[in-house]
Amino acid sequence: MKLPIKQIESIIEACKCISFKCIAHLLIFGSVSVSALAANSDTQSMTEVSHIELFDEQVISRFIDNAFAYKSDTYTDYAVLFNLCQQDPNNELCGSELDVQKAQYQRAKASHDSLAMVWKSEFKDLMLPPMAYQQMVNELKQLGYLTQSTDVPVAKVHAALNQWLVEHGLAPTQEIYLMHGYLVSSAALLDAQSDESAEQASNEKTGS
C-alpha cells in the first residue's frame, strides 16, 4: 500500500525515526512503501548502470558477509550466556552482562538485516532520508573522516563520505543514498566492536 507523503512524515515523527534501524523497520513491515519514500526525494531514481557504477557487487557482498559474521558471533555469545542463565539464574553474569550481550546481538542483527534488505534491487533507488543524516555524520566522525559532528557543512560531509567510499573500494558519489548510510553504519558498528575487543584484551593483559 502506498502512503501519502504527509502520512509517511507523521509515521516517522511518531516513531522518532532518526536511525537507519528505525527506517529499516518501517520498510520491512510496510509502514512506509518504498515507492512513496523514494518519491519524497528531490533526486530521480538511479538507473541500472548507476547501480553497477556506485555499488560494486563484490565489495557490497563483503560488507554483508562481515555483518553476518558479526551477527553470528554475537548470537553465539548471547545464546551461550542465555542458556547458562536458564540453568543458573543466580549466576553473577545473569544481570547486566546478559543485557549487554542481548543488546549487542540485536544491534548486529539489525545492521546485517538492514544492509542485506537495502541491497535488494527495489531499495537501491532510495536516497538517504534527511532524518538519518545526523547519524551518518556521527559515524563518519567515529571512523575518523570528520573532526566534528555538529554544524558540519553538507559539502564537508559529502567529501568525507567520498573519501571513505574510495578507501573501501567503492565509487565516489554525487548523491547520498540510503545504501551509503547503511554501509557506513555497518562499518562503524564493526569499528566500535574492534575497539571494545582491543580494550578488553589490553585490560586482561594488564590484569595478568
Descriptive notes:
The chain is elongated, with a radius of gyration of 19 Å. It has 9 helices and no strands. Helix 5 runs antiparallel to helix 6. The chain is mainly alpha-helical.
Shape: elongated
What is the CA-based Rg, rounded?
Answer: 19 Å
The main pleated sheet reads as: none
| Helix proportion range | 55-70%
User: Could you name the ranges where pLDDT drops below 50 across 5 or more consecutive residues?
Assistant: 1-6, 31-45
| Amino- and carboxy-terminal Cα gap | 60 Å
Order of helices and strands: HHHHHHHHH
Strand content: under 5%
Number of helices: 9
SS elements, strand count: 0
Mean pLDDT, rounded to whole units? 78
**Class by alpha and beta content:** mainly alpha
